[in-house]
Design brief:
With 299 residues, this protein is of the alpha/beta class. 32% of the residues lie in helices and 24% in strands.
């Protein structure tokens, strides 16, 4: 029987240079989609999937993330005095339970693989989820919940969320080969990191920022020499682990917004705002005025 997934790792040590000057003093993970920080959206997704232990791999100037997942006594006291029970309840509901959040440091920017490796002592010898907060998944149920269902149905192993992109774009991503489809899940036959030629890509299914990994990945990362950009690439370590452990893929049902990119971030704000009952109608009217067109219902 597959061991349950109760731990999630969130790499949040990046500098966010693509969003300067906004990220000069504020972590990029605290940028908001409408009114929820990117890191909170990722934590919400993890909680929906049954995660109980949240591990944040941070860097310098990331103290705001720790503060976000802590009590804010002055604010809470003010809300109580003003009778703002709805806002107070939301703040309390967003917090992990006492002792359920852990923080560790990635002292050098040596890539995603290295960030994951920095969490090894906190994860221990258990399978874990890995969520990249930049990649916002708009899905119901959430992407990780869908992945856990595949993990359990296939008896464990490693699971990677994928999505389909145009063939001309495959050279920008890690790409997987697929066989033995069952619904939206499949067995991964191989992985290629940023194939230089289209014919080197086994498919147009790209890795999209959500993983379930077995603890043996840490030993593979430790043996992994620096790759592209002098960084330790997680995909390279997964390719080696694929030689002795099963990897499954999920073509998840939903939409990915790359919020490490300005256009993707703006698109996420539009999509999430339009889906909200509190701000959606007013925002739709504002878009009509800005664009000078009428938006179809449900847009």
């Amino acid at each position: 029987m597959a061991r349950p997934i109760k731990t999630a790792v969130f790499p949040v040590a990046g500098l966010g240079t693509r969003f300067l000057p906004a990220t000069k003093a504020m972590p990029k993970e605290m940028l908001t989609v409408v009114d929820r920080p990117l890191i909170q959206i990722a934590v919400d997704e993890a909680r929906e999937a049954g995660i109980e232990h949240f591990i944040f791999v941070t860097g310098r100037n990331k103290g705001m993330i720790e503060d976000h997942f802590d009590r804010a006594f002055e604010l809470e006291t003010t809300l109580k005095q003003r009778g703002r029970t709805a806002e107070l309840g939301q703040l309390e509901g967003d917090l992990p339970g006492a002792g359920h959040a852990s923080f560790t440091r990635q002292q050098e920017p040596l890539g995603l693989g290295h960030a994951v490796w920095c969490a090894r002592q906190l994860v221990g010898n258990e399978p874990f989820a890995l969520l990249l907060p930049d990649m916002v998944m708009h899905a119901s149920p959430g992407c990780l919940r869908q992945m856990v269902d595949v993990y359990e149905a296939r008896g464990g192993g490693n699971v990677v969320a994928v999505e389909e992109v145009p063939w001309e774009d495959v050279g920008r991503y890690g790409v997987v080969g697929a066989r033995d489809w069952a619904g939206d899940g499949f067995a991964i036959t191989g992985m290629v990191e940023k194939p230089k030629r289209r014919e080197d890509a086994p498919s147009n299914l790209i890795i999209s920022g959500r993983y379930i990994l077995q603890p043996e990945i840490f030993a593979e990362i430790e043996r992994q020499p620096p790759g592209a950009g002098g960084e330790i690439q997680l995909t390279d370590a997964m390719i080696r682990l694929l030689g002795r452990q099963a990897f499954h893929g999920l073509k998840y049902r939903g939409t990915t917004y790359d919020c490490g990119d300005k256009v993707g971030f703006l698109a996420a704000n539009v999509a999430f705002a339009l889906g909200r009952t509190d701000v959606g109608p007013g925002f739709r009217a504002a878009l009509r005025r800005i664009l000078g067109v009428d938006l179809p219902p449900g847009t």
